[in-house]
Q: What sequence folds into this?
Protein backbone atom coordinates (compact mmCIF):
# COMPACT_ATOMS: atom_id res chain seq x y z
CA UNK A 1 0.00 0.00 0.00
CA UNK A 2 2.82 2.42 0.88
CA UNK A 3 4.50 1.85 -2.50
CA UNK A 4 1.16 2.40 -4.25
CA UNK A 5 0.61 5.70 -2.39
CA UNK A 6 4.10 6.80 -3.39
CA UNK A 7 3.34 5.98 -7.04
CA UNK A 8 0.08 7.97 -6.89
CA UNK A 9 1.91 10.89 -5.26
CA UNK A 10 4.46 10.84 -8.09
CA UNK A 11 1.63 11.01 -10.63
CA UNK A 12 0.36 14.18 -8.99
CA UNK A 13 3.82 15.76 -8.80
CA UNK A 14 4.49 15.06 -12.49
CA UNK A 15 1.03 16.38 -13.49
CA UNK A 16 1.92 19.64 -11.73
CA UNK A 17 4.82 20.01 -14.16
CA UNK A 18 7.66 19.16 -11.77
CA UNK A 19 10.02 16.27 -12.41
CA UNK A 20 9.01 15.56 -15.99
CA UNK A 21 9.96 11.88 -15.93
CA UNK A 22 8.57 11.21 -12.49
CA UNK A 23 5.26 9.87 -13.80
CA UNK A 24 6.85 6.87 -15.50
CA UNK A 25 8.38 5.74 -12.21
CA UNK A 26 4.80 5.17 -11.00
CA UNK A 27 4.23 2.21 -13.32
CA UNK A 28 7.22 0.02 -12.32
CA UNK A 29 6.67 0.91 -8.66
CA UNK A 30 3.04 -0.21 -8.85
CA UNK A 31 4.07 -3.37 -10.70
CA UNK A 32 6.38 -4.26 -7.82
CA UNK A 33 3.52 -3.67 -5.37
CA UNK A 34 0.52 -5.18 -7.19
CA UNK A 35 1.80 -7.22 -10.15
CA UNK A 36 1.76 -6.01 -13.78
CA UNK A 37 -1.85 -6.56 -14.79
CA UNK A 38 -3.43 -5.11 -11.65
CA UNK A 39 -0.92 -2.24 -11.63
CA UNK A 40 -1.87 -0.85 -15.03
CA UNK A 41 -5.57 -1.19 -14.15
CA UNK A 42 -5.09 0.62 -10.83
CA UNK A 43 -3.02 3.41 -12.37
CA UNK A 44 -5.30 4.42 -15.25
CA UNK A 45 -8.05 6.04 -13.10
CA UNK A 46 -5.32 7.86 -11.16
CA UNK A 47 -3.75 9.12 -14.39
CA UNK A 48 -7.16 10.29 -15.62
CA UNK A 49 -7.71 12.15 -12.34
CA UNK A 50 -4.29 13.78 -12.66
CA UNK A 51 -5.07 14.77 -16.26
CA UNK A 52 -8.04 16.83 -15.03
CA UNK A 53 -5.75 19.00 -12.88
CA UNK A 54 -3.22 19.41 -15.69
CA UNK A 55 -5.86 20.15 -18.31
CA UNK A 56 -7.40 22.92 -16.21
CA UNK A 57 -4.00 24.49 -15.60
CA UNK A 58 -2.90 24.41 -19.25
CA UNK A 59 -6.33 24.95 -20.84
CA UNK A 60 -5.99 26.31 -24.38
CA UNK A 61 -2.16 26.41 -24.25
CA UNK A 62 -1.65 23.74 -26.89
CA UNK A 63 -1.38 23.06 -30.62
CA UNK A 64 -4.45 20.99 -31.43
CA UNK A 65 -3.10 19.86 -34.82
CA UNK A 66 -0.63 17.53 -33.07
CA UNK A 67 -3.53 15.70 -31.44
CA UNK A 68 -5.22 15.35 -34.84
CA UNK A 69 -2.03 13.90 -36.35
CA UNK A 70 -1.47 11.38 -33.54
CA UNK A 71 -5.01 10.32 -32.64
CA UNK A 72 -5.78 7.84 -35.48
CA UNK A 73 -2.61 5.88 -34.73
CA UNK A 74 -3.30 6.04 -30.99
CA UNK A 75 -6.72 4.37 -31.35
CA UNK A 76 -5.26 1.53 -33.44
CA UNK A 77 -2.33 1.23 -31.03
CA UNK A 78 -4.64 0.92 -28.02
CA UNK A 79 -6.55 -1.93 -29.69
CA UNK A 80 -3.25 -3.70 -30.45
CA UNK A 81 -1.97 -3.03 -26.92
CA UNK A 82 -5.08 -4.56 -25.32
CA UNK A 83 -4.53 -7.70 -27.37
CA UNK A 84 -0.88 -7.85 -26.28
CA UNK A 85 -1.89 -7.64 -22.62
CA UNK A 86 -4.19 -10.61 -23.11
CA UNK A 87 -1.37 -12.65 -24.67
CA UNK A 88 1.48 -11.73 -22.29
CA UNK A 89 2.21 -13.67 -19.13
CA UNK A 90 2.90 -11.73 -15.92
CA UNK A 91 6.65 -12.28 -16.40
CA UNK A 92 6.53 -11.03 -20.00
CA UNK A 93 4.60 -7.93 -18.92
CA UNK A 94 7.22 -7.28 -16.23
CA UNK A 95 9.97 -7.46 -18.85
CA UNK A 96 8.08 -5.17 -21.25
CA UNK A 97 7.29 -2.56 -18.59
CA UNK A 98 10.80 -2.69 -17.12
CA UNK A 99 12.40 -2.36 -20.56
CA UNK A 100 10.26 0.68 -21.33
CA UNK A 101 11.24 2.27 -18.02
CA UNK A 102 14.96 1.80 -18.78
CA UNK A 103 14.50 3.02 -22.36
CA UNK A 104 12.75 6.11 -21.04
CA UNK A 105 15.77 6.99 -18.88
CA UNK A 106 18.17 6.51 -21.80
CA UNK A 107 15.90 8.69 -23.94
CA UNK A 108 15.71 11.45 -21.32
CA UNK A 109 19.49 11.51 -20.97
CA UNK A 110 20.03 11.60 -24.74
CA UNK A 111 17.16 13.82 -25.85
CA UNK A 112 19.37 16.91 -25.99
CA UNK A 113 20.55 15.50 -29.32
CA UNK A 114 16.99 15.89 -30.58
CA UNK A 115 16.83 19.45 -29.28
CA UNK A 116 19.95 20.27 -31.28
CA UNK A 117 18.48 18.98 -34.55
CA UNK A 118 18.76 21.63 -37.25
CA UNK A 119 15.65 23.12 -38.79
CA UNK A 120 12.08 22.96 -37.59
CA UNK A 121 10.16 19.73 -37.92
CA UNK A 122 6.86 20.05 -39.80
CA UNK A 123 4.44 17.37 -38.59
CA UNK A 124 1.70 15.86 -40.70
CA UNK A 125 -0.77 12.99 -40.52
CA UNK A 126 1.48 10.47 -42.28
CA UNK A 127 4.35 11.08 -39.85
CA UNK A 128 1.96 11.19 -36.90
CA UNK A 129 0.46 7.78 -37.70
CA UNK A 130 3.45 5.59 -36.68
CA UNK A 131 4.18 7.81 -33.67
CA UNK A 132 0.54 7.58 -32.57
CA UNK A 133 0.53 3.83 -33.15
CA UNK A 134 3.62 3.33 -30.99
CA UNK A 135 2.28 5.70 -28.32
CA UNK A 136 -1.03 3.82 -28.19
CA UNK A 137 0.67 0.43 -27.82
CA UNK A 138 3.23 1.45 -25.19
CA UNK A 139 0.69 3.48 -23.24
CA UNK A 140 -1.79 0.61 -23.16
CA UNK A 141 0.45 -2.00 -21.54
CA UNK A 142 2.82 0.28 -19.62
CA UNK A 143 1.41 3.84 -19.53
CA UNK A 144 4.67 4.69 -21.29
CA UNK A 145 3.85 6.89 -24.30
CA UNK A 146 6.07 9.73 -23.09
CA UNK A 147 9.21 9.11 -25.18
CA UNK A 148 7.32 8.73 -28.47
CA UNK A 149 5.16 11.80 -27.88
CA UNK A 150 8.27 13.78 -26.91
CA UNK A 151 10.14 12.61 -30.02
CA UNK A 152 7.21 13.89 -32.12
CA UNK A 153 6.88 17.25 -30.33
CA UNK A 154 10.43 18.29 -29.39
CA UNK A 155 11.79 18.91 -32.93
CA UNK A 156 8.89 21.30 -33.60
CA UNK A 157 10.59 23.84 -31.32
CA UNK A 158 7.38 24.73 -29.48
CA UNK A 159 7.57 27.15 -26.57
CA UNK A 160 7.82 25.47 -23.17
CA UNK A 161 4.23 26.31 -22.20
CA UNK A 162 2.79 25.17 -25.55
CA UNK A 163 4.92 22.01 -25.46
CA UNK A 164 3.70 21.07 -21.97
CA UNK A 165 0.10 22.05 -22.79
CA UNK A 166 0.14 19.97 -25.98
CA UNK A 167 1.60 17.02 -24.08
CA UNK A 168 -1.14 17.33 -21.46
CA UNK A 169 -3.84 17.41 -24.16
CA UNK A 170 -2.43 14.34 -25.94
CA UNK A 171 -1.97 12.29 -22.75
CA UNK A 172 -5.50 13.17 -21.60
CA UNK A 173 -6.95 11.83 -24.85
CA UNK A 174 -4.75 8.73 -24.79
CA UNK A 175 -5.71 7.88 -21.20
CA UNK A 176 -9.45 8.41 -21.68
CA UNK A 177 -9.43 6.41 -24.93
CA UNK A 178 -7.99 3.48 -22.95
CA UNK A 179 -10.76 3.48 -20.32
CA UNK A 180 -13.49 1.58 -22.25
CA UNK A 181 -10.94 -0.92 -23.59
CA UNK A 182 -9.65 -1.57 -20.06
CA UNK A 183 -13.22 -2.19 -18.85
CA UNK A 184 -14.12 -4.71 -21.57
CA UNK A 185 -13.79 -8.47 -21.24
CA UNK A 186 -15.28 -11.49 -22.99
CA UNK A 187 -18.11 -11.65 -20.47
CA UNK A 188 -19.28 -8.30 -21.89
CA UNK A 189 -18.50 -8.73 -25.60
CA UNK A 190 -17.54 -11.97 -27.32
CA UNK A 191 -14.71 -10.54 -29.43
CA UNK A 192 -11.50 -12.50 -29.86
CA UNK A 193 -9.24 -9.47 -29.39
CA UNK A 194 -10.78 -8.52 -26.03
CA UNK A 195 -8.92 -9.85 -22.94
CA UNK A 196 -10.63 -12.72 -21.06
CA UNK A 197 -10.74 -10.56 -17.91
CA UNK A 198 -11.19 -6.79 -17.70
CA UNK A 199 -8.06 -4.84 -16.77
CA UNK A 200 -10.13 -2.38 -14.73
CA UNK A 201 -12.42 -4.32 -12.41
CA UNK A 202 -14.00 -3.99 -8.99
CA UNK A 203 -10.76 -4.99 -7.24
CA UNK A 204 -8.56 -2.50 -9.12
CA UNK A 205 -11.14 0.30 -8.78
CA UNK A 206 -11.23 -0.11 -5.00
CA UNK A 207 -7.43 0.07 -4.94
CA UNK A 208 -7.52 3.18 -7.16
CA UNK A 209 -10.01 4.86 -4.81
CA UNK A 210 -7.78 4.15 -1.81
CA UNK A 211 -4.81 5.72 -3.60
CA UNK A 212 -6.72 8.64 -5.18
CA UNK A 213 -6.16 11.22 -2.37
CA UNK A 214 -2.42 11.03 -3.03
CA UNK A 215 -2.89 12.48 -6.55
CA UNK A 216 -4.12 15.98 -5.57
CA UNK A 217 -1.62 15.90 -2.69
CA UNK A 218 1.09 15.25 -5.28
CA UNK A 219 -0.18 18.12 -7.46
CA UNK A 220 0.06 20.47 -4.48
CA UNK A 221 3.55 19.13 -3.67
CA UNK A 222 4.62 19.56 -7.30
CA UNK A 223 3.48 23.21 -7.34
CA UNK A 224 5.40 23.83 -4.11
CA UNK A 225 8.53 22.07 -5.42
CA UNK A 226 8.36 24.14 -8.61
CA UNK A 227 8.58 27.29 -6.51
CA UNK A 228 11.29 26.11 -4.13
CA UNK A 229 13.70 23.79 -5.95
CA UNK A 230 15.53 23.23 -9.21
CA UNK A 231 14.56 20.09 -11.11
CA UNK A 232 18.07 19.16 -12.25
CA UNK A 233 19.39 17.33 -9.17
CA UNK A 234 15.97 15.91 -8.37
CA UNK A 235 15.62 14.43 -11.86
CA UNK A 236 18.97 12.67 -11.65
CA UNK A 237 17.73 10.78 -8.59
CA UNK A 238 14.41 9.99 -10.28
CA UNK A 239 16.08 8.70 -13.45
CA UNK A 240 18.37 6.48 -11.39
CA UNK A 241 15.42 5.08 -9.41
CA UNK A 242 13.40 4.54 -12.59
CA UNK A 243 16.28 2.70 -14.27
CA UNK A 244 16.91 0.50 -11.22
CA UNK A 245 13.21 -0.29 -10.80
CA UNK A 246 12.97 -1.17 -14.50
CA UNK A 247 16.04 -3.39 -14.19
CA UNK A 248 14.45 -5.16 -11.21
CA UNK A 249 11.36 -5.93 -13.33
CA UNK A 250 13.43 -7.18 -16.28
CA UNK A 251 16.02 -9.25 -14.42
CA UNK A 252 13.96 -10.18 -11.33
CA UNK A 253 16.83 -9.78 -8.86
CA UNK A 254 16.49 -11.61 -5.56
CA UNK A 255 17.18 -8.54 -3.44
CA UNK A 256 16.44 -10.37 -0.19
CA UNK A 257 19.17 -12.91 -0.98
CA UNK A 258 21.63 -10.06 -1.64
CA UNK A 259 20.95 -8.55 1.78
CA UNK A 260 21.28 -11.96 3.44
CA UNK A 261 24.79 -12.04 2.02
A:
Amino acid sequence: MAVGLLAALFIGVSKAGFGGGLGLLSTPLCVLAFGPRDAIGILLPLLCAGDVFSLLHYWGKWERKNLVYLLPGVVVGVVIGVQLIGRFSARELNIAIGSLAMFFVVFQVGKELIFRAEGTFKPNGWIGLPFGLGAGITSTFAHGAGPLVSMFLIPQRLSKVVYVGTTVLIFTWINWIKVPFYCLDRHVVDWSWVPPEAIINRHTLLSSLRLLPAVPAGVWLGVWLNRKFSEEGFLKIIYLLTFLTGAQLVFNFDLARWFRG
User: Anything to note?
Assistant: DSSP finds 13 helices and no strands in the chain. Confidence is low (pLDDT under 50) at residues 255-261. The two ends are 28 Å apart (CA to CA).
